[in-house]
Specification:
Radius of gyration: 22 Å
Strand content: 15-25%
Bound molecules: nicotinamide-adenine-dinucleotide
Structural class: alpha/beta
Number of strands: 16
CATH architecture of the largest domain: 3-Layer(aba) Sandwich
CATH class of the largest domain: Alpha Beta
Number of domains: 2
CATH superfamily of the largest domain: NAD(P)-binding Rossmann-like Domain
Length: about 350
């Protein structure tokens, strides 16, 4: 009997080459993941967190989830090392993902996971924009020019193809230049420009404002957010409490999770400045149509996601299917036969 176990290995380049940097695919996978979770069709245990430095929050987290109907179980093993960019000039976040089938419990894929993880962050913002941004949005402003900001620009452009101009402010003008250099060829119909670290110039008058920074400070001021704007908050503490206070609708990926974390809305909740009934709804309620999205062109809307790892597994599964269909990846033999079937086992055993 054949007791071989194989899975497919996909590098980031395999996934990119197969067309997996596809925000529409990621948004659809995240939407169906959220609906499946709401319907009790996702097993989603607590994540496991190992923090190696309390000051810098350098950590590795283990985030599993199972989609019962698709019969797929996955885990994201994600490293977050915030000092990496400034200390070593390398990325903060890196991840790998394992997918297993649940008929025999064998792994089917081992894949690079940073692309999937960043796609998920962008996809959540893109889904929010579909429901909460003005349909005629033309100008988008970024505070922060890192990896999440770049993916968010693709997500927002996917959700609102009417976007024509992008302004970006970061801690250094060099980072803004890097953002423009990398994003301009991908979005040739957009005018993308740095602001010389002028945060107000990036946000003021924009139809969509995004903060994606490693700062822990109230960078975004309420007076910069115009009526009719969507604000998408990605990092930790990034905006003045007044931004949420003046918003007509506040939507989260999951408010019960958000309120126990450390970003601005969580701080406001702890400080008694924000209550459960100030939250319009969770993102899934907009997807299902149970709650309305934007109802007035002058509404200010506020979206905050902390990350629902089952959405990562849902997106990873979609990426795996696409990459496999494209014939990408390499066969990874996990075992040829069972342990005691090996003819030469007696030569290998150490007693
Ligand atoms: N919500 C989620 O699901 C989710 C997922 C992943 C990452 N994040 C968070 O998103 C944030 C951004 O992550 P990243 O990977 O893009 O980080 P990054 O290190 O690549 O980029 C951070 C950016 O913040 C900018 N910045 C820092 N301080 C600033 C200041 N005072 N003024 C202006 N700009 C400033 C930097 O210039 C840089 O452009 C982090 O806080 C990260 O923890 C959130």
């Amino acid at each position: 009997m054949n007791h071989q176990i194989h899975c497919q290995y996909f590098s980031q380049e395999d996934l990119l080459g197969a067309g997996c940097l596809d925000m529409t695919m990621a948004m659809e996978a995240a939407e169906s993941a959220m609906l499946a979770y709401r319907d009790g069709r996702v097993l989603f245990p607590e994540k496991i967190v190992q923090i190696f430095n309390d000051d810098t929050q350098e950590r590795i987290n283990c985030l599993p989830a199972t989609f019962v109907d698709e019969k797929i179980c996955g885990v994201k093993w994600v490293s977050v090392f915030p000092p990496n960019p400034t200390r070593h000039g390398i990325q903060n976040l890196s991840a790998v993902i394992i997918l297993s089938e649940i008929e025999h419990g064998f792994p089917v894929a081992f894949m690079e996971g940073t692309l999937c993880s960043n796609l998920r962050v962008g996809a959540m913002g893109g889904i929010a924009a579909k429901h909460l941004a003005r349909e005629d949005a033309e100008v988008i402003g970024f505070i922060g020019a890192g990896e999440q900001a770049k993916m968010h620009l693709i997500a927002m452009k996917t959700a609102r193809p009417s976007l024509r101009r992008c302004r970006v402010a970061a801690k250094t003008a060099g980072e803004e230049e890097g953002f423009v250099r990398e994003m301009a060829p991908i979005l040739p119909d957009m005018e993308i420009a740095g602001t010389g670290t002028d945060l107000a110039a990036a946000a003021t008058g924009a139809d969509i404002v995004v903060t994606a920074t490693s700062a822990q400070a109230p960078l975004l001021k309420p007076e910069w957010v115009k009526p009719g704007a969507l604000y998408s908050h990605i990092g930790g503490w990034e905006d003045d409490y007044g931004v949420a206070r003046q918003s007509d609708k506040i939507v989260c990926d999951d408010w019960d999770t958000v309120k126990h974390r450390t970003q601005t809305l969580s701080r406001m909740y702890r400080d008694g400045e924000l209550h459960d009934d100030d939250i319009h709804c969770n993102l899934v309620d907009l997807i299902s149509g149970d709650k309305p999205g934007r109802q007035d062109p002058e509404e200010r809307t506020y979206f905050n996601a902390v990350g629902l790892a089952y959405a990562d597994v849902g997106i990873a599964h979609a990426m795996y299917r696409r990459a496999r269909e494209a014939g990408m990846g390499q066969d990874l033999k996990i075992q040829n036969e069972m342990i005691f079937e090996h003819a030469h086992l007696k030569d290998w055993v150490r007693l």
